[in-house]
Design goal:
The complex is a heterodimer of chains A (70) and B (249). With 70 residues, chain A is of the alpha+beta class. Chain A contains two helices and four strands, in the order E-H-E-E-H-E. In chain A, the strands form two sheets. In chain A, strands 1-4 form a two-stranded antiparallel ribbon. Chain B contains ten helices and eight strands. Chain B is an alpha/beta fold and 249 residues long. The chains are: A alpha+beta (70), B alpha/beta (249).
Chain lengths: 70, 249
């Protein structure tokens, strides 16, 4: 695992911009979760494929994503 | 573990009220990151407009000031002229604010060459008031006040602020960017940084226009809105540097 992405899911509005820019295509909108705003938040299902490029975090309008390199 | 990216210190912890996929949040953080990188959060005063970004004063961690609709460049002029040397002043305005009711203020501020930075968000529509036609609305674009689409005969051609301001000597830097993807986002950040650096050299008014998406009032999901922006707005509002008459020292 090269990278670790953390979402503050309570603040996610499910806009999917992070999904659209992830070069590895590992970000999904988690339909099983509904946050306190009423949105399905973004999540990474296969964290081991993350390359810590931070594209998702850079485009997130609500700045809810933190990216770490392991 | 090393942190590669986290929320900028230039932003407060307040949750943004913007709709899902609204580009305001992206531009907010580009400005905030720039202030943080230049180490000027403590010496910067921003001026918030009227419009969707009216609450910008809650979101930036630098000092902020509100302004009457469209009058942000006039308020910024006053702030800049009475503040201690080295104070950075910027306005953050939408198209309904800057290109409609505030056209006189921005043109006059640029003419005078005020040493301020103007961040102009162009989403081709009035957002906060419910999706009315703006001066920047494209020909054929449907809004609540142009339900059949804007026509040239009725409303003229959309105003191009970068081109307009670049004809004025006092405006030393004008660039149009967008934040639709990571390469464009990086270019936008570079432009914003340059605008602030030139202000620090007292070069004159610096202007960055950001093409932005308004998914809610365009009636499109965020991803489709970004595609619409690329297909329709960029051909009419070409990206690039329109004025660059001062060098960053």
């Amino acid at each position: 695992m090269a990278g670790k992405v953390t979402f503050c899911q309570d603040r996610c509005k499910g806009c999917e911009l992070c999904v659209s820019v992830c070069p590895k295509g590992i970000i999904v909108i988690d339909q099983e979760v509904t946050n306190r705003k009423g949105y399905h938040p973004a999540a990474v299902k296969e964290m081991d494929k993350c390359i810590a490029c931070a594209s998702c975090a850079k485009i997130c309008p609500d700045s809810i994503i933190t990216v770490e390199r392991l | 573990m090393a942190i590669v990216y986290q929320k900028s210190k230039g932003l407060t912890d307040k949750e943004l009220h913007y709709c899902p996929g609204c580009t305001h949040g992206i531009v907010h953080k580009l400005v905030a990151e720039t202030l943080e990188e230049l180490g000027i959060i403590g010496t910067t005063i921003g001026v918030a407009p009227v419009g969707c970004s009216v609450f910008a004063y809650d979101y930036f961690s630098c000092d902020m000031h509100g302004a009457a609709h469209g009058r942000a460049p006039a308020v910024a002029t006053g702030i800049k002229r009475v503040s201690p040397p080295g104070t950075t002043v910027f306005t953050y305005q939408g198209d309904g604010d800057l290109a409609a009711i505030g056209t006189a203020e921005i043109v006059q501020a640029a003419m005078r060459g005020e040493k301020i930075t103007v961040i102009f968000i162009n989403n081709a529509i009035y957002g906060m008031t419910g999706g009315q036609m703006a001066p920047t609305t494209l020909i054929g674009q449907k809004t609540t006040t142009s339900p059949l689409g804007r026509t040239k005969e009725h409303a003229g051609m959309p105003i191009k602020m970068c081109e307009l301001l670049s004809t004025l000597d006092g405006c030393v830097y004008a660039e149009r960017v967008c934040v639709t993807d990571i390469p464009n986002l990086n270019k936008a950040k570079k432009a914003i940084r340059k605008a602030f650096e030139l202000q620090q050299q007292n070069a004159g008014l610096t202007f960055v226009e950001v093409l932005a998406a308004c998914p809610t009032n365009w009636g499109k999901p965020p991803i489709k809105a970004v595609e619409w922006l690329k297909e329709n707005m960029i051909p009419y509002y070409p990206l690039g540097v329109y004025k660059d008459s001062a060098e960053v020292k």
